[in-house]
Amino acid sequence: MSPARSRYVDLVVTILAIVAGVAALVILVHDPAEARAGAGWRWGVMVLALALAGPLHLRLPGGFDASPVAPAIGLAMVLSPLIRLDDYVMRSALVVVGVIVGTGIGLALSALTGQGRPVAAVISSRIVGAAAAAALFRNVPWVDGKAPARQVEAWADTPWRMAVAMTVCGAVAVLIEMGVLVLRTAPIGRIDSQAELVARELGPIWLAVLGIAVAIALGFGPLDLWSVPIMASPLLLMRTALRRQAAIAQVRHDTIEALSRLTDGTGFTTEGHGRRVRDLTRLVGTELMLTERELRDLEMAAMLHDVGQLGLSDPLPGGATSEAARADQVAIAADGAAVIREFGGLERVAEIVELQSTPFRNVREFGEDVPIECRILKACNAYDDLTQGREEMRPSALERISLGMGYEYDPDVVDLLSNLTRPAR
């Protein structure tokens, strides 16, 4: 990601959230009696429910934070007939303040219970999304010259129209939050691929959030506040499933860590080789603007790239696969990829390991499709094979690698590797 752009996006969305909050407070202070009349006990219960749902966020295996329950309740506040006032601007102000108060209390509860807390910009984008959806639903006359909230009686015989309007307004809030996340985390020039990744990782969750929020809002008529626990219960089950998925991913990560250390412990590679290669590949991959998903796959491949050596009868000198014969390099890479495929779900990692031995000339002269991750791993592995973690070996290692630039190694990767390993002055 671009740190400068991430900071800029954080600043902009935080300012917008503050503006939305201040504007809502000004509206409430302008007529405090009307505000008190609108903020009845139902409003308070919804704020409390939102606060209690705050600590229920979790970290997905892909590195994204997910909090399906709290956003659904907050969005339901925005879309529901919770506040019965003639002044629709006051209604919007009350729900925005409710979302801010409930979210703030939820953050405090998260800190007190040791659950951690989401990124401030994510919370700010949620507030901005809620304010936009509230204005669109209650104040902007975009359906037959009126706001959807003013069409309750007119649409009494066609309730599907209200459901569609609520879905559209809620979708605006969802798109704002997902859009901010993409802009914050996308590498320069990779917004499209990051948007695809976010949609794949979080899209189903947000679709569920949107659907449940609309269901809660529509259920207020016949069920009153009972619509919240009844309609939100599937999200609690979803959270349980996501927690199990995260636990399985953690077990897989621990297994990979143990397997990567096996070559060190059995003398096939030097101590810490896999970790050093992993750290180098992440540095180079970040400079080449790989997405977070690509970086995770590259790191796993770096940790496991020498697993194929376990099938050798005798260890290679120093465990240096880059110094082995070409046929041995190909065989070790193929054996390692076969082991990785046994895990299931790591096909991309296995491909990186399998193609790591491919010389760069095959890309340049024969047009072979060798992913950039493979070229990064090849150069970083050779560098650590030659230095074995010793900084004083850097000049000779880079000299050896430079002799193979354009033939064995990708020149762009080697140049970055040279710059990134330069000692700090």
From TrEMBL:
Gene3D superfamilies recorded: Hypothetical protein af1432
Record's keyword terms, sorted: Membrane, Transmembrane, Transmembrane helix
Tagged with keyword Plastid: no
HD-GYP domain location: 248-425
InterPro entries xref list: Cyclic_di-GMP/3'3'-cGAMP_PDE, HD/PDEase_dom, HD_GYP_dom
PROSITE patterns documented for this protein: HD_GYP
Spans traversing the lipid bilayer: 7-29, 41-58, 65-83, 89-112, 119-140, 160-183, 203-220
Official protein name in the record: HD domain-containing protein
The organism of origin for this protein: Calidifontibacter indicus
